Amino acid sequence: MTAVVRPVANISALCREADAFLETGEFERATALYMSAFRTHGASTVAHMRKLNSSLSGVISTLEGWLDGHGENRPADGRNKGLAAVFLSTLSPNNLSATIFKMESLLQSSGQVCEEIFERCTSLLEGKPNCLPGDTANMMLELTRALACLVSESHSIRGLKLYLKMYKSDKSETIRLVKSRQAQHLPKIVKTLTEKVLHTHHFFEMNEDSTGSTKDKLEDEACSKVIEFLSALSPSSREVQELNAVHLLMTGRFGDSAQVYSSLLELCCSQTSSNGNPDPPERRAALLTGRAAAYLSAGGRSAEVCSDLGEAFQLHPATARVYFQKLFTGRGMGTAARNLLRQQADRGLSGFKERVLVRLDLRSTDGIELLDPAITLLRTLCHLEPNGGGRELRVRLADCLLLRGEHREALSICSQLAASQGQHSYQNTVQVLRGYARFLCDDHKGALEDFQAVIEHNAPHPPSCVRALCGRGLLRMTSGSNYLTAVDYVTASRLQPQETALTVRCLVPWNSRGLLVTVLVEQGRVMLEGAGEQEAKQRASGEFQQHQQEAQLKTPSKVKHRSGSASPAGVHSLALLLMDLQPGADGPQVLAADALYRLGRMEEAYRLLLSVGPAGPRAPILARLALLQLHRGFLYNTNQLLKKLIHCGDTSCLIPLLAVAQQRDRALLQTHCHSAAKRILEASGDEGALREAVTYLSIAIMASGGEAVDSLLERARCYASLGQRKTAIFDFSAILKDHPQHVQALCGRSFTYLMLSQQQECTRDLLAALQVNADVVAKHILALKAGARKLVCDWLHQFCRGSLSGRSGLCVCPLSRRAAQTGFCHVCSSDEDRLQGTQVASAARGHPAS
């Protein structure tokens, strides 16, 4: 109870009132009144209280309880507590509680009396040799002495040991007394004890130059007790928790250490999200590095170790490097940690490459995020190495950055590596990476120089050479040299197909990949057709066998290798690459099948075409299957496939196929289709049969290269029967272009002109045919219907009379006139016509030659 001080000092009244409370046993209220009186007039109050006999001890006990922290009505502020100490000292000189309180007050106000307080506490303790272990006063003396030593810098280690002694004797009471009686010194106590532990394990200090005497260091058991003591004093202190985590790590309790570190990191995240003020990056980097050390020591947590280290070096490299040197290198784990980081980086890069190679969409960038952890770990390794990392590490970092799309940073690293004096390791890799980085930065000239240097190197690195070939091919495509682009990619695909596919999927810009594949398919076809034409010419000139023998005798060389890029084997390698880049697309599969066919691997080509899948009848696939079945001698299957092809209505797909087909197979296809057309025409003459026959004949003509005279003649007749007379004339003319005396073609074209009522053209072709073989022409004319035959005879009659009179519009020679007369006589059907023909012939015989 707080006494109210009256303006008029009525000491006697206060003392009488206090006496009344004292008689009833209410010591708290009585003591409060006595204190009020003492504050007003101390001498009178003390004189009055000296008269009290046994009751005085109750007041003294109450005052001691207040000072020691007991009692329900203890003073609420330091002033009343100080008054209580003075009052108690007056009533009971040398009272221990009052003395302790005075020493505590002196320590709070000034640290210069530490030695005196230490000596005083020591003398008081020596004067109480038989104190009980649970005596509060005795414990307070010990704690006050410990605090005095701790505040005194020269005896801080002694104070720490005194605190530990008291903590071991009575943990709960020691913690209670320190928190209640030394609350103002608590931050100082925690800080000093923490520094002592850090000094013992000096590698946790950020200052490398910090020194201290060996005698001030604690043993491991003492450190454990100090940390336990600190945890009890300040359980919510993050510094203490971090110290605990460090000590657990040092003492081999790795799992517990990792849990403490995780709790601290979660606490940082929760506080950041709650108040919006993030912790300094240095602190989080230190915690992450510590947890990584605990995980690595515990084993089985490789991914977490690398993740924590990577994040730590991302947040604050300097702090992470210092803690790494202390926690890992200082404990002999530096090499293991570096190897683990390297393995994880390799695993991340391998995972990225595997994801890239199974992409279904060529333009996709799926899986690129897998490079981020690898890049982070490689950066971490570079931070751990002197001078920013070795050459090999920086090359790998530049490679990953380039794959990730960070081409400017990759260019910076590669330029530094290329400019290094006296270092030539990984030179090809550096140059090819710089070439791609330059290309992506639109420096095409510099990129070409780098690619060319790698390709022309005396001892090129195969993967780098493949990348350089792909890069040069890409530059050639942008400049319009499509054929040379294909040559580069053929060479690359023959060297290392998987590396070539990976380069196209990763290093070629996504918006250029589709165009690149289209160009390669087209130019692969050009190469294959060119090789077929060259072989056909060599076979025709009889030089093919000799050329093969010479090629086998020659030694391999770069020139031979590059000239072989356009061979069927090179095109096959290119086609396999394209099939890998665009699985399921027809173009690469058809190109691969044609290349296998050119290599003589018919069964493989057939199986490849069958594996294309039932996505509907596709003319290019059907055409090649038909040719292969014909080559194998399966005529029934050939017929069925040709019917499907004709049903598709796209026979133009045969043109690229026949450009690479062997002469033997082309002749087989021509004969087979011509025979099929003849069978169809013999079986039926309706319009549908005629059109089907025309299609077969067209295939036969394409297979012969336009030289199948019989097929041209039959197709021309079919066109004439279908009413497509001008088309028929075109086919007849095609025959007559190479065979001007072909009677069948001349007659056919003549009769077609007859249907078009073109008298002059009709007569001219008939005259030409009559000069070759009049009997055959006469048979053809006689086979005409009566009206057509009579019209032909009239036109011939007109020609004969016109030629005799000189009025004919045609250039007439005696041979033509004689042929017309002979033919006219052969075809005259009536007696009147025959008589007319005889007269004309007689007159002709007497006509002078023109």
From TrEMBL:
Residues 532-567 are annotated as: Disordered. Gene3D superfamilies: Tetratricopeptide repeat domain (1.25.40.10). It comes from the Eukaryota. Residues 543-555 have a biased composition (Polar residues). This is Uncharacterized protein. It comes from Takifugu bimaculatus.
